[in-house]
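Usage example:
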Amino acid sequence: DAGITQSPRHKVTETGTPVTLRCHQTENHRYMYWYRQDPGHGLRLIHYSYGVKDTDKGEVSDGYSVSRSKTEDFLLTLESATSSQTSVYFCAINHRDRGKDDYGYTFGSGTRLTVV
Amino acid sequence: GQQLNQSPQSMFIQEGEDVSMNCTSSSIFNTWLWYKQDPGEGPVLLIALYKAGELTSNGRLTAQFGITRKDSFLNISASIPSDVGIYFCALIKAAGNKLTFGGGTRVLVKP
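Running the assembly step on the lines above writes:
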């Protein structure tokens, strides 16, 4: 499996402060994703990237921005954190570029963010 | 947007029992995926289904892709304590290879 790490694993921040979460992968996969997980909602897509500097919005993108300046790193930024953004955030990579029959996605271990 | 309904939301199971959960979508898709999430970890792929009617097993897990291509179920046979976790169904949207997840089924095993 591709190496995928998220940092930090846990963070507590105050309302109104900026926060950046980092996702790092080691196998040059093209597609990377940020999801948030909340009780009763499963995982919902925030933003995704299909290459360096190529990103697009998911279903819950308001209040979030992303950047991908290198293949291996995908950053999620909360410009001004709000309590509604308290959640567990997961990064994922898609293996599809390894071959058309590989539909695998690998998820990081998550970042638990609390906005107080 | 895409509606993906998963049921039940949670269940307590007796060790050794067989259990079943299912997902339905409001649209037709070509791929169904089933994931399991252990506490404190990200989801891990269990089974992928690519064709209507397909029945696929992975150890004690069996999943089927419904004939209408709008539903799928996952069965766990002979439950054991390590089956505890949250199970998600998911669909792939071709544009951007994006996953859409169901709300999850939380499985708890009675001691």
